[in-house]
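OP here, attaching both records as promised.
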Amino acid sequence: MDHPEEIKIIKQMINLKQNGFNYAQIAKILNAQGLHSKTGLPWKRWSIQKILKRKKNETI
């Protein structure tokens, strides 16, 4: 189960993706907001892509 803060970040990722942002742009936006992955590292394009793909598969 995701932590409430993680859910908030994932919803932001989904919203940005639905509004036409690519994975690299989403990573840049999250990092500029001072948000980090649960490992404490800055966001990378591939990590966002992996998370959104996993979330999409969970809803099917």
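Record two, same layout:
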Amino acid sequence: MIVKIKKFLISIIFITPLCSVFADDLEEMKEQFKVLMNENKRIQQDNQALNEQLNKQKKLIDQLLDKFEELEIKSEENEISQDVTTSAEGILAEEFLPNLSIKGFSDINFIAELEDIPGVNDQFFVGQFDLFITSPIADNISILSELIFEFDEMNETVIDLERFNIKYNFSEKLNLRAGRMHTPLGYYNETFHHGTWFQTAATRPSIHQFEDDGGILPVHTVGLEIFGVLPFDTFGLKYNLSIGNGRGKKVSEIQNVIDSNSHKSVSLLLSAIPENTPEFRIGANIHLDKIPADDAATAIAARKSSIDELIVGGHIIYAGDPLELLFEISYIQHDDQLSARKYETTGLYFQAAYAFEKIKPYYRFDFIDFNNSDPFFLTANIDIAKHTIGTRWDIYSWNALKLEYSYADRDDTDNTQTITIQSTFTF
């Protein structure tokens, strides 16, 4: 029994410290477990934040991928656009695209007669409404047209295609023009066309009036023309050579489509222009034609046959700034084939002007001496000597006001004194 008690006491002595040790280890394990639990909780929280960060980064990556795809598509479109542009440039290099340009010219007028002339009244009137249309269709080819809207003596609207031609520009020395054009009959008709804006005075010289305004020269021609400037040491020689349908049966007739005979008109204009004074030129012109017979019932006997026409002219021009001096003369000879008679008509004009900045006073003298028996000019053969003084005021670069007085001495009819006010403009 004593032995058992000793064993029990010994076990207590040894086990009690062990239990204490085990208790301490347990507490330490508990603390470690708590630490592990806290660490796990922290890790879980960190994982949640990491997941949120990863989700944000994923969204950002998706956005970047979408942007990249968009930029890639745009890049492909740009490449396609560049290819199209390159192709278009290639097409443009091979084929010149037309470039239409339209400019307008017109004028508003008031005319007052100072003499009491039966049937002639003071009046306002609208001048020609001129649409000047050009278009290059190749590097050296261009189209030109001048479409006119105007009113006739019956106050009816009339549309005239005054000029329409195609031009081939081979060089400064050689150009070719085909269509309806102004006949090279001298300086004025070659330089001034249907827009009154360009000319100094309100009206054209009497000898260069248009056919439907009572003019006596074949101002328009339908045909071909070669022209250019040939350079020499001290001057340039400007030349115009044309061949066309020629005159019609009446003075006002222009043979646009049908020529009344097989004979063609031929015109040659030469002008010498000094190299050091391009404002000055001197030259001459010649025109040959066969005017067809007029077989109408109303035609006079002398017009039952054709008429050979010869026109010879000359000009001396100084078109400078501020000084302007213009002189031209034309001699017209008609050889009637039936009567074998020759008829001579002479016309000329002289114009002088001097510009004082925007104000430009001018004077012009017009003269026409008809052969009163000329069968082709029977409806227009009234001799005239006309003096005109006036002033042009360039109000703007696109609008000018002209005021002029003219006195006309006409054979076999009343003399006239006329006041003309014109506002001419371009647009």
